[in-house]
Amino acid sequence: MPFTDVRDPAIPSDIINLLHNQTFTEGLGLSEDVKCIRISLVPEGYEPYPFRNGVEECMEDILKTIVVLLEYYWQVCVRGCRLLNLSLHS
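Given the sequence above, the corresponding structure tokens read:
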């Protein structure tokens, strides 16, 4: 298992392992790996929502989206709440 300096319980080890395996085993570039991970976090048939509207996404924006999604899923798990339809609160 890859070593990380900071462990956040919201970021599952599966995601870290996937990033490590795709980068070092399959030889994908970091930007392709991060995009694959972000796409895997949204339901099939949906596109990930950009972190900032109207601005071309950079690596930082894509990583922020991943962390926000993972933190949201973690909070739902911890609190035992139902998923909220965030489109109703925009």
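The mean pLDDT is 79. Try to locate this feature in the token string yourself.
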